[in-house]
Input
Amino acid sequence: MRIGMLTGGGDCPGLNAVIRAAVRKGIQHHGDEFIGFMEGWRGVIDDVTMPLTLETTSGILQKGGTILRSSRTNVKKIEGGFEKCLETIKRNKLDALIALGGDDTQSISLALSERGVKCVGVPKTIDNDLNGTDACFGFDAAVMIATEAVDRLHSTAESHNRVLVCEVMGRDAGWIAITSGIAGGADVVLVPEVPIDIEETCRLIKYRREHGKKFSIVVVAEGAKFPAGTVATHDESLDSFGHPRLSGIGQTLAEEIEKRTGYETRSVNLGHTQRGGTPTAYDRMLATRYGVAAIDLVHAGKFGRLVVLRGTQITDISIADAIAKTRTVGQDLLDVLQSLQPLKDAV
Ligand code: F6P
Output
């Protein structure tokens, strides 16, 4: 078969491992041919490709980013976008198209499926919030980076009696925040799922101070917001899928904490450091399993489907189900967090 592949949305450690696994299985076991589209859906619209062979995908397993580059190109917003995609697919005589991406990228896969394209999806998001899968590759690396940052922040927080606020990624879901926060021993973790309770945040920080701990660490997801407020953004602009560029809640929070407690409070925003560098062994393993499973779906003729992890097993769900809702942090993890904190009426 002739198979196209692309990576869309934010980059993520493990994308190359998926590409490599799919190409190796496809070529060596089925005699497939692969074409890589450059920069996400933009490459399909403009027909910009690179050959994906055993040679061009060799040595990329441990490499961060994506050899296919990426973009947040929304085909729906481009005049004649879908027609151009269909022409490209026809011109390249493709039998199937594998798209690696989150809900935005997969919304285009779904629209193309509805136009007769044989699409298979691979879930990708650092935020780990795609519905129907228990894990996305790259999340583990992001959590490792954020946890190490929280560990490192302890040194300065403790030495200088400071409150340090660490802003991590997580637009609609706080998976990175809650996992790195608990793993790193943060004193307060704030996620998009729960409106920020500034009084409770300050109470926890003051409680620590009154019980001998003169420093505190707060982890906040970029998408967390105050009850009445909107999300903190870098500027007014929106990307082509209508998302604002989130940034700044950490700094706002630090100012508010300092104002209310009188304790010196600083913030640090980890930003894209969380998406960079080599995938962890877990990410490489999951990415490789997804790559192999994607080729298996293609050869089973199961199109319009997305490979997912359920428990420890790889299976598949419809792309439509995968993008129907966001997988958010559940009460079980929020309860774990609360279990580590003093009770509300503790003195
Ligand atoms: O969706 C993944 C993500 O990393 C979000 O956590 C973040 O809000 C967004 O991408 C940032 O995107 P960009 O790198 O395009 O600014």
Observations:
- Residues 10, 102, 125-127, 169-171, 222, 245-246, 275 surround 6-O-phosphono-beta-D-fructofuranose (CB under 6 Å).
